[in-house]
Specification:
With 387 residues, the chain is α/β, with parallel strands linked by helices. It contains 17 helices and twelve strands. The chain has helices at 9-25, 38-42, 59-62, 66-83, 94-107, 128-133, 147-151, 174-180, 198-218, 233-240, 256-262, 272-279, 292-300, 311-316, 331-343, 345-361, 369-385, and strands spanning 2-6, 32-35, 87-91, 113-116, 138-141, 156-159, 189-193, 223-227, 248-250, 265-269, 284-288, 323-325. The protein has a six-stranded parallel β-sheet, with helices on both faces. A six-stranded parallel β-sheet has the order 9-8-7-10-11-12, sandwiched between helices. α1 crosses α17 (369-385), α4 crosses α5 and α9 packs across α15 (331-343). It is elongated, with a radius of gyration of 23 Å.
């Protein structure tokens, strides 16, 4: 038996893929216990309690729940003791999973302790690498540049690949999209993605509108497509009603990757979507703006200091996806770069080559991250069993 814990939807997705790969490699002769959501439950997990109890964000939301969370930690550790698993695997959510790992270290010293998804010690809280090294036996990372941060602290760390390579973003049908929406093959198409949260879209939609107004003079025949997440559709539709180019608002999530394949360029918020756009090979300009207070706190109190906000740029250490952040998130600065990208085919081709290089580093072209992680786990358990 393997005990596996995820505390939020992204971890549940990783956990479900890992469990499926473990079952495939073990010929189905493997059992699971732990905590997870629908993806892990599809693979046979009966969650000790609903994962949604752990999906908490924001200090004001966490504080009232601390007693209950600590009780759940005790219950989880007791359940691990009863199950006597061959290994404990925790996925992200270190606020909860770290407490479980630390208690298991004290109470079940011989239990192999594995964690999947590294904290962003390269961006903030660098001392956390030593904290993990003092608790865990093995860490599996999503990003290729992460292992050295933990290995120097003595923690065995293996890069297994990023789940974006399994998302299907590179398999869109651009010709089908253009035919469906009556767009000629030579019509320039710009994908606009203002974020997935109201806080993001509220700050970015006015900037994006100003960018489009500036592009109107040089690109009068440009078309714009906005793949919208369901809870932002109305907000985006209302904002885009005054934009030039008669934007096409997509409500069907199934069309998003087709839109990526059909588009010439993108203007997008920083975040996971940037990886999807890179996977699709779509040249992109990245824009993002935190509130002034949040930016100040991140820089001043948490030591949040990174050269790039976009993982593609971090891995290659160059602005493959040009970034316009905070005070630079300004239409007068963004529009000229986006205009050049729209009109310079050689520039777009160069950026596509760089994005392909980055995706290869993330694991594209090899075994799936879930399969790699499963092999790492099984190899480590077998190694621990050897006399």
């Amino acid at each position: 038996m393997i005990y596996i814990i995820a505390g939020e939807p992204s971890g549940d997705l990783l956990g479900g893929r890992l469990m499926a790969a473990l079952k495939a490699r073990a010929g189905g002769a493997i059992r699971f216990a732990g905590i997870g959501g629908p993806h892990m439950q599809e693979q046979g997990l009966q969650s000790l309690f609903p994962m949604t109890e752990l999906t908490v964000m924001g200090l004001t939301e966490v504080v009232p729940r601390i007693p209950r969370i600590l009780r759940r930690v005790r219950e989880t550790v007791d359940d691990i003791g009863q199950c006597q698993p061959a290994a404990l695997i925790t996925i992200d959510s270190w606020g909860f999973t770290g407490r479980v790992q630390k208690r298991c270290q004290r109470q079940y010293g011989d239990l192999p302790r594995i964690h999947y998804v590294a904290p962003m010690v390269w961006a903030w809280k660098p001392k956390r690498a030593a904290e993990l090294a003092g608790v865990l036996d093995l860490l599996m990372t999503l990003l290729p540049f992460e292992p050295p941060y933990f290995e120097k602290e003595g923690l065995r760390t293996i890069h297994v690949g990023h789940p974006v390579i399994e998302c299907g973003a590179g398999q869109g049908d651009g010709a089908r999209f253009r035919q469906r929406h009556h767009l000629a093959a030579d019509t320039k198409l710009l994908a606009v993605l203002p974020g997935s949260r109201h806080s993001e879209s509220g700050r970015l939609l006015p900037v994006f509108a100003a960018v489009l107004e500036r592009l109107r003079l040089s690109q009068p025949h440009l078309r714009v497509v906005v793949p919208a997440v369901p809870h932002l559709v109305e907000e985006i539709r209302q904002a885009a009603s005054s934009w030039p180019f008669s934007p096409l608002i997509l409500e069907d999530a199934a069309e998003k990757y087709d839109a990526f394949a059909a588009a010439d360029c993108a203007l997008a918020a920083s975040g996971t979507v940037a990886l999807e756009l890179a996977m699709a090979g779509l040249p992109t300009v990245i824009a993002y703006r935190l509130s002034a207070l949040t930016a100040f706190v991140a820089r001043r109190f948490f030591g949040f200091k990174i050269r790039w906000a976009t993982l593609i740029n971090m891995m290659l250490d160059r602005p493959v996806m040009p970034e316009f952040l905070q005070e630079n998130c300004d239409a007068a600065k963004i529009a000229p770069v986006l205009e050049r990208m729209l009109t310079d085919a050689d520039d777009r081709d160069r950026r596509r080559r760089h994005m392909a290089e980055a995706m290869t580093r993330l694991g594209l072209g090899g075994p799936s991250p879930g399969d790699r992680a499963a092999q790492v786990v099984l190899d480590y358990i077998a190694e621990r069993k050897r006399p």
